[in-house]
Amino acid sequence: MNRFAHTLSALAICSLAFGQQADRSFREGLLSLRNEDHRTAIAHFTNAVADQPKHAKAWYYRGVSRVVIGDHTGAVHDLDRALLLDPSDANALLRRAEVYLKANRYADARRDLDQLLQQHPWGPIAEHGLFTQGQVGIAEGDYEAARNSYDRLLEMAPKDPKAWYDRGIARGHLGDHDGAIMDLTQAIALDPDLDKAYGSRAVELIHQDRTEEACTDLHKARELGDGSVDELLIIYCY
Predict the structure, then answer these.
(1) What is the pLDDT of residues 179-196, one digit of tens each?
(2) What's this model's pTM, rounded to 2 decimal places?
(3) Exposure winner among 13, 52, 161, 201, fewest CB in 10 A?
């Protein structure tokens, strides 16, 4: 074997070793992530991308763990890298939009979600995208846009209590108190333990001077552990 062939063989062995080390670090990172030990997961994924910089999933999952510990800047960096390596990764695009929402970067979140929903107009990823899009609308105070997102979502997922809840919130802010009560009632029917839905429905009932019904909801919310209703209980129910 000539010197050039020896060099190629050595490079192949070295590349294989790095690949095996990256895969091992990646697997250990996934185990740590599953066990919710996110700082350890980040360390393992960092080793994986150091050994194999084009490991898109390692960048993605490190970004996921960084979101959990509140490192939004680091998470965006990692998700940017994941998308650069694999532009078709809808989960990375969705996660980045969620990070932008947490960081109050609403225009960036909308951009990612518009792209996501254009590429995936139907199915589980679209449902998740529409839910997040609705949350962006609520965060911005654009309740009409939020309602429109939840309208589309509920066509796909009519048994999603959180979608009914959020649309009820949007409708309440738009002054549609009857519609809000209907949506919040549906959310409660689908998930009777959704404590915040009782408090929110109570607010809508108070708008309609239905204080007795509102107090029933406020007591139920408190029973389920929602301490935010204490002031309303004192004002309207004692």
Answers:
(1) 999 999 999 999 999 999
(2) 0.85
(3) 13
